[in-house]
Design brief:
Helix content is 6%, strand content 48%. It has 1 helix and 8 strands.
Amino acid sequence: MPSWLPTAARNTWDLGLEPPQGKPGLTRGAAPHRRPANRANARFVLEVAAPERLLVREQVGEAQIPAANGYVGILPGHAGLLAELGAGTLSYATGGHRRSLAVEGGWLEVASDHVRVLADKAEEVA
C-alpha cells in the first residue's frame, strides 16, 4: 500500500475497495478549475436582455454585475453560476472602453464562455 495515500484511502484499500485514482489528494471525478492560458486576450460573450429587447451581445473581457446579495465580478473562465439579479449598475469592459447599464430584478447565468443577464428592467446609462 502506497504511503502517500490518505488515511481514509488506506482504510478503503484494507476493505478491498478500489483506491482513488490520480494524484495524491485528488478524488476521481473532480475537475480542476481552468483559466484561459492568455488572460490578456481572453473574452466571453455577454448578453443582456430585457422583456422588450436585447440590449447587449458583445465579446467582453470582464463584467461587474449586481446580484441580489452584492456585486459579482466575472472574468473569462469563471465557474458556472446561477443567481438572482439585484438592482444596480452593470458595467463591462470591451475594446478598451467601459460601458454601463442600469438593471433591476431578473436572473444571471454564468457559463464557461458566456454570461446571460435576463433583467426585469434594464436601460443604458449615458
